Amino acid sequence: MEKKEAPTIKTQRLTLRRLTENDIPGMQKMFGNANVTKYMPGDTPPPDRHSMLKIVRARRETEWAIILNETNEFIGDCMIPSIAENYLGEIGCVLLQEHWGNGYAKEAMFAVIGHCANTLKLKRLCAKTDDQNLSAKRLIESLGFNKDAVFPEANFIGRVCDIAFYSKSIE
Ligand SMILES: CC(C)(COP(=O)(O)OP(=O)(O)OC[C@H]1O[C@@H](n2cnc3c(N)ncnc32)[C@H](O)[C@@H]1OP(=O)(O)O)[C@@H](O)C(=O)NCCC(=O)NCCS
Fold first, then answer.
1. Dihedral in degrees, nearest 10, Cα atoms 162, 156, 135, 77
2. Is the pTM of this model over 0.85?
3. Which numbered atom of ligand 1 lies nearest the CA of 138?
4. 102: Cβ below 6 Å to ligand 1?
5. Best residue among 13, 135, 137, 139 to mutate for probing ligand 1, ranked by most atoms within 8 Å of CB
6. Atom nearest to 129 CA in ligand 1
7. CATH classification of the domain holding 69
8. Using a 6 Å cutoff on CB, does residue 104 contact ligand 1?
9. Considering the domain boundaries, does residue 116 fall inside one?
10. How many domains does the chain have?
11. What is the C-alpha to C-alpha distance for residues 74 and 123, in angstroms, rounded to an integer?
């Protein structure tokens, strides 16, 4: 059976499209930066080419490369890592450090949220982050998510940290 691919989504400054092998150098740079991976879950891949290739080959229809329209460069990725009962989705985003602070993550996540509501017809979204990850918390809060709880010393997919849990209705 043919694999379903992520649909291309255009925003003012960005294009979200399926990951390709051409994105691997950018992915290696991103996951090879300790500032990027500092607060990420314990299953964050090592930045070798083989691990990146595995990610590209295992790509799902809910995972996008983020491309800057102006330069056509890979600046990060965003995803819906899980969907339950066609009701609740989880969202996440990672950018190369040199592209932080421009509102690109917000623009990409806004588009993903629109896709969740209008195409996937989900009703609710959630996001989890290390409670110390201030940039991620600012981003999630700026998208209108509510901080429901902080789970102390919790299992963030193999890494122990305080997990902030956010959610938002998109009905
Ligand atoms: C989390 C992460 C994606 C946030 O990236 P970001 O660039 O800070 O987020 P945004 O796109 O929302 O940009 C917001 C910043 O851009 C600024 N900005 C500049 N121009 C802007 C514009 N045109 N529109 C909106 N914001 C703009 C905002 O003022 C804001 O700055 P502030 O955070 O100092 O208040 C990034 O820090 C990252 O990749 N971290 C590592 C991975 C990670 O931890 N991901 C979360 C995993 S759970």
1. -170
2. yes
3. 33
4. yes
5. 135
6. 48
7. 3.40.630.30
8. yes
9. yes
10. 1
11. 30
Query: Is the residue at 20 inside a domain?
Result: yes
Tell me, using a 6 A CB cutoff, whether residue 108 lines ligand 1.
Answer: no
Range 80-91 burial, b when 16+ CB lie within 10 A, else e: beeeeeeeebbb
Report which protein residue has its CA nearest ligand 1's atom 24. 103
Q: In this predicted model, what pLDDT tens digit does every residue of 18-32 receive, in sequence order?
A: 999 999 999 999 999
- Residue 99, φ and ψ in degrees, nearest 5: -110, 5
* The length of the chain, given as a count of residues: 171
As a whole number of angstroms, the distance between CA 121 and CA 124 comes to 9
Residue 145 lies in a domain: no
Q: 82 in ligand 1 pocket by Cβ < 6 Å?
A: no
Task: Name the token pair of 53.
Answer: 């290739």
Domain hosting residue 34, numbered range = 9-127
What does the pLDDT look like over 39-74, one tens digit per residue?
A: 999 889 999 999 999 999 999 999 999 999 999 999
Residue 153 in any domain: the answer is: no
Question: Strand order of the sheet with strand 146-155?
Answer: 9-10, 14-17, 63-68, 74-84, 88-95, 124-130, 160-169, 146-155
Encoded tokens for 40? 């990420």
